[in-house]
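Quick check before the chapter quiz. The format below is the same one you will see on the exam, so make sure you can read both the input and the output lines.
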Amino acid sequence: MNLIVSVDKNWAIGYQNKLLVRIPNDMKNFRRLTTDNVIVMGRKTLESFPQGQPLANRVNIVMTKTRDYQVKGAVVVHSIEELREELKRYGDKQIYVVGGESIYRQLLPYCSKAVITKIDGIYEADTYFPNLDEDKEWQITKESEEQTYFDICYNYVTYERKV
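Here is the expected output.
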């Protein structure tokens, strides 16, 4: 399993169920990586999408503790065990965990690759991602050149779990 996330310098990922910033090229990169693949998210992340709807051209899997939760166009699971069973159906597709904080924390131990957009700034935030720079199990395997969007500087960093 892979994960994809944008973080600021403090590894913050969101505020009031919204991204910290919207960078068009980062959105394009997200679309490029996840299209025709499987994305796994929590209920609140799905609700933060446009019109609260699943993203097109992907298998959308929502993990929630709410037993009667249903959403058209998405598969709903209620536990890691149920998720792992469901994922067996998509053997040829890449799987990307896309948020939010609690889903990232629950599924990080099952991920082998993390595609992280590192934003060179600090924002007001209420949700965070674990700092992989301080985690001895992860190493940087790829880094892009610095990119800019108006006054926002960022780059893409790929981490892989050490074997």
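If your answer matched, good. The chain has one domain: 2-161.
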